[in-house]
């Protein structure tokens, strides 16, 4: 089914769809063809945000009193609506931010699975009985919702990330105000339509689109927002945290990565090449878990490099809606400019550009979009900027290590600590890697990208606020523990 392009999407506040009080909208463009307007979204004001927060605050009084199983029923219904619109919402995602249709469908299916997973959480244990020193008393813990949760989400996973924040927020009894990335606000509006159609009470889920500096910052600073969950860049994440901390609100941040893959001397090189390409270049490298540093032990450096370069020749670049496309465009002009400037930077630092170009990708189908070829640098040393800074694009830096021990040290030589992977068949290497790698996700014989919804997700160092999202770990952020002491 072809989606309707050029429609105007509204805010969703207190159970109703409406325009911003500003009267202004912004066009959301297709990065594969900037002449295509996917839709128009509201440029909201502080007043719109205040109304959304007030409605979430009001709705939280009855939502928190509903049984977890009843909240779960509504998440199951939202999952069913999302499932019935999977292809349409995935197509909107591809058109709005460029990832291939296959990846967008996979992500939307992941959103459905997350909703179903958290629906079940509504019937699981939320506390413990702890023996009191008073033998006549009962002491236990229970958990209570935070109240109103502000969700600030990025454009790179426009369905999965909002859902993995909203579903646990809702099941544990919080109400939500979502401020999605402006880049993918049409996809976000369609996602919120699924919650609305599922019959969530008015005010339980609200959508306010608009500028990050105004609506996002406004959410972080709002006195009636009790918790803020954020995924995006480090710079913005820190500002969000400071605003939340200043007024005593709870916050959670998932931010950047500079994720290494280590290729040991005994690695299966074909599998390692496939994992490097998939982890580093799918979604044009625009994942916080994307591989960007490829650390190769000396003995296999040349063999690995040769196989990698040969395989890259087969990558097809184009519009994500075309079945033959493996890699779509960068999500926006800023992303393209950043990627090209880092390629230039790599050359200036003395690295060897073995694949790719300092100019945008050329071809008859590529002139209207933000396309760039994958870039692979050799002769990279760990202190170069291309080996240290998050590029968020299809750029791989090959770094040579004299030994496995040096490879581990190089992998840790970063301010980030989100995901890391190793290719080896040696159990000792695997154990050393698992023990010594300073990252929240450590993956053996598998790519750095990709997370499972039932497992904790988050990073160390500058990659996160050290909290974890997803799986049962989500309960820690979205609830507070209350210790109860009862004496008859
Ligand atoms: N870890 C990850 O998954 C992601 C990392 N990034 C990194 O960030 C870089 C820039 O991407 P970008 O999209 O600009 O990421 P941002 O961190 O700017 O955006 C993430 C979210 O925060 C919002 N936002 C922006 N400014 C503020 C603010 N002052 N207060 C509160 N919220 C705000 C954005 O809204 P709006 O869209 O309106 O600006 C968006 O919803 C990328 O190149 C990449 O390095 C980006 C996306 C995801
Ligand atoms: O790798 C994934 O599936 C998740 C990545 C992610 O959370 C992100 O890029 O923000």
Automatic annotation (TrEMBL):
Signal peptide segment: none
Q: Indicate the segments forming the Aldehyde dehydrogenase domain, all copies.
A: 19-484
**Which keywords fit this entry according to its UniProt record?**
Oxidoreductase
One example GO MF annotation: oxidoreductase activity, acting on the aldehyde or oxo group of donors, NAD or NADP as acceptor
- Residues forming the catalytic site: 254
InterPro entries from the UniProt entry: Ald_DH/histidinol_DH (IPR016161), Ald_DH_C (IPR016163), Ald_DH_CS_CYS (IPR016160), Ald_DH_CS_GLU (IPR029510), Ald_DH_N (IPR016162), Aldehyde_DH_dom (IPR015590), AlphKGSA_gudD (IPR054869)
Annotated family: Belongs to the aldehyde dehydrogenase family.
For this entry, the protein name equals: Aldehyde dehydrogenase family protein
């Amino acid at each position: 089914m072809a989606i309707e392009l050029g429609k105007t999407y509204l805010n969703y506040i207190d159970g109703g769809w409406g325009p911003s009080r500003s009267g202004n909208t912004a066009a959301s463009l297709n990065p594969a063809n900037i002449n295509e307007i996917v839709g128009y979204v509201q440029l909201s004001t502080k007043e719109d945000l205040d109304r959304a927060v007030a409605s979430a605050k009001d709705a939280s009084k009855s939502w928190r009193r509903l049984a977890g199983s009843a909240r779960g029923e509504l998440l199951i219904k939202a999952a069913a609506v999302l499932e019935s619109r999977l292809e349409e919402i995935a197509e909107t995602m591809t058109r709005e931010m460029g990832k291939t249709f296959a990846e967008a469908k996979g992500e939307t299916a992941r959103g459905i699975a997350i909703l179903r997973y958290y629906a079940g959480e509504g019937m699981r244990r939320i506390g413990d009985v702890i023996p009191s020193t008073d033998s006549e008393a009962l002491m236990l813990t229970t958990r209570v919702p935070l109240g109103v949760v502000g969700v600030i989400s990025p454009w790179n996973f426009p369905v999965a990330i909002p859902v993995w924040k909203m579903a646990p927020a809702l099941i544990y009894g919080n109400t939500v105000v979502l401020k999605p990335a402006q880049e993918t606000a049409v996809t976000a509006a369609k996602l919120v339509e699924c919650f609305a159609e599922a019959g969530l009470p008015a005010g339980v889920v609200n959508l306010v689109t608009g500028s990050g500096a105004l609506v996002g910052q406004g959410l972080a600073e709002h006195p009636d927002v009790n918790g803020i969950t954020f995924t995006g860049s480090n710079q913005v994440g820190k500002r969000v945290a400071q605003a939340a901390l200043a007024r005593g609100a709870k916050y959670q941040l998932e931010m950047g990565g500079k994720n290494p893959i280590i290729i040991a001397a005994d690695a299966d090189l074909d599998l390692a090449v496939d994992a490097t390409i998939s982890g580093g270049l799918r979604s044009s490298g625009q994942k916080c878990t994307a591989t960007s540093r490829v650390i190769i032990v000396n003995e296999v450096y040349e063999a690995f490099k040769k196989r990698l370069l040969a395989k890259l020749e087969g990558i097809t670049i184009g519009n994500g809606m075309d079945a033959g496309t493996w890699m779509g465009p960068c999500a926006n002009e800023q992303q393209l400019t950043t990627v090209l400037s880092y390629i230039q930077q790599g050359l200036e630092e003395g690295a060897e550009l073995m694949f790719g170009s300092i100019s945008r990708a050329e071809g008859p189908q590529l002139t209207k979009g933000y396309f760039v070829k994958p870039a692979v640098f050799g002769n990279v040393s760990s202190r170069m900027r291309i080996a240290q800074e998050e590029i968020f694009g299809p750029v791989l830096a090959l770094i040579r290590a004299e030994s496995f021990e040096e490879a581990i040290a190089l992998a840790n030589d970063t301010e980030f600590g989100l995901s890391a992977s190793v290719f080896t068949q040696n159990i000792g290497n695997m154990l050393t890697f698992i023990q010594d790698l300073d990252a929240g996700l450590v993956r053996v014989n598998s790519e750095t990208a990709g997370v499972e919804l039932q497992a904790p997700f988050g990073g160390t160092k500058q990659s996160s606020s050290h909290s974890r999202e997803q799986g049962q770990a989500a309960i820690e952020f979205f609830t507070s523990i209350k210790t109860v002491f009862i004496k008859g």
